[in-house]
Amino acid sequence: MPESTRDLGYLAWKNDLAWMESQKTKEWMTAIKKENTAFQEALKGLPVNSVQRDLISSGKSDPWIWKEWTITHAPFSPIQVWKRGSFQVSCWDADISTDRHWFAAAIQDLNGFERFVIHVYSLEKKTSPKLHHVISSCGPHVRFCKNDLIYSKSSKDLRYDSIHLWNSEGHDIELYVTKNPTEQVSVGKAEDGAVYVIVDDFVEKRLGFISDSVLYWKTSHKKDIFVTSFLYQIFNQRCPFSEEPLESMSLKAGWAVTRSYGIRTLWNLKGSTPTPQITVWGEISFDARDPYRLSVSDMRYEPYIVNVKKWVLNNPRAYPFPMTQYRDPAPTFVVFPENEIQGLLVSCYSAYGSPTHMGGMVHHWMPLLLRGWAIASVCVPGGGDHTIEWKEKGQRENRKIAIDTLRKAVEFLQEEHSISPKNTCLYGRSAGGLLVISTATLYSGLVGSLYVESPYVDVLRTISNKDLPLTNLETREFGIGTNPVNILATQEWSPMEHIPAEGLPNLFVIARSDTADLEVFPYEVMKWIWRIRGKNETQKKLLYIHTGKGHFTTNQRYLSEDLALLDQWNKSPDNISFTENSAVRRKNRSTKYKMAMSRKNRKNMTRKNRKDRKDRKDKKNSPAMMGGRKSTRRARKHTRRH
């Protein structure tokens, strides 16, 4: 049974719900059953099927066709489906040998845990792939270096600490192992076919390449490492043709992507001078095995592909919603419903230097948009939306900066668009859940609801427990219990330690987790839910704990249930919007005023100037390719931008 008191010598605190941490007792199973039953009861009578139809009808991305294989990505999941003829396999990653005789796939545990085995298949042209070999205790990535399989080995849950080579003769060779518990290893493939190795601790990386069954290190530990075709360079956020940080690049295909405060720019490197082609409110992704095909996820458009061989853009289809973006107090991207705003959902992540991924927000939140919600995505320090300094500004003892930045952004949106805190919801998953829960806890009354998935919420007790899978690995991201500076800084904002004695009775909560989650154990969210329930509870706290889904529980059905619950709560009599007498004044919410505009500038602008600014902004954001930028026409419904 876990000890209820955590004593670090210089700091001690007690947690009377520590008994949950074993997740094995009869009381634990009873608690899960009770929470799940209450969640299902709350769903009765809700139009979940209607919400799901609206979700399914939104944008879909095209599959990737490569070497006779069709590769599709499961929605809201890292799962890929590789298919050739009648054969298909669901995996986290897969690759094919140079001679096309071998196919390998990293397959997740069927019970949902992030534990992987590698299935190696022999390929014949006229027959289905045949399972040849199985490798256990592996990482989620596989790559062939010519005909040798390169993969990471796992010594324990979520700990990928060695690189191995397997060849067709059946020999398995260890190429590298790290003894540093804060480091993780991974493999990837460069566009020239070479296989590279990255050693990463969320702050510094080390790069090596494999040749003739030997791992050659090309760099020492650096803060930013970039891999290009035939030429391996360390850019350290310096870009020779732009002031913006360089995010990705292909010398073979002749393109580069820079990023600045959440906006990506695609550059054409062919010719004497690099030229910008499109700006993207979202992400530009690619696979080095086919660098001529770029997948664009832009919140303004349905997903589309750019073929850089011809630099052709096939008129992406625009979403029929007004949109805007702000720089201050934080880079914020907002999509509005076509009519009066009924509610506001703000999503945020900000961890590990990962980008915010606002590109798919319309697809993800389509049912809410159709029901009158505005959706915002906020970039705060700690994420990968700008520079290295931006990322470091929100890590470890600096995380309070990220919390305060999110709070300021929410307050700005509420005032700018006349949204009551009661009608405002914060959404976050995993480390994003920690951010939004901390913000809502420290600033009581900021929002009326939280929607969280697998939230990392018991941070202080987690970073002081080395037995948990990610505690040591995430030392440079969240800190660790052996460092008093980390602990004392974290206790200033750690949400579990700042819940008032009366709980958070006025906060509506929807939360999901899973018993197979190894990244964030479900006891964390259970402890949090129990603590925030006050004796005089006025809003529900709904928690569902799945079995066999792992860290990525979301699917279309579960998301539809959550959105139906959220929309019902927002429109319930117990959650009435601010009246005309409220301290937050209402503004004209016609579509005329939904372009990006500060309050000061709007006050000083004439109608003509507003129109001129609107036209210039539309032209600037239009993804015209190669040559002049075309003017656009904006209509309330079914707009199309070229």
Structural summary, described in words:
It is globular and about 70 Å long. With 642 residues, the protein is α+β, with helices and mostly antiparallel strands. The chain has a domain at 18-55 and 319-570: Alpha/Beta hydrolase fold, catalytic domain (Rossmann fold, 3-Layer(aba) Sandwich), CATH 3.40.50. The chain starts with a strand and ends in a 21-residue tail after the last helix. The protein is built from 13 helices and 35 strands. The model is unreliable at 229-237, 576-622 and 624-642 (pLDDT under 50). The relative contact order is 0.10. The strands form 8 sheets. The chain has an 8-stranded mixed beta sheet with strand order 28-29-31-30-32-33-34-35, with helices on both faces. A 7-stranded antiparallel beta sheet has the order 7-8-9-10-11-12-13, with no helix packed on it. A 4-stranded antiparallel beta sheet has the order 3-4-5-6, with no helix packed on it.
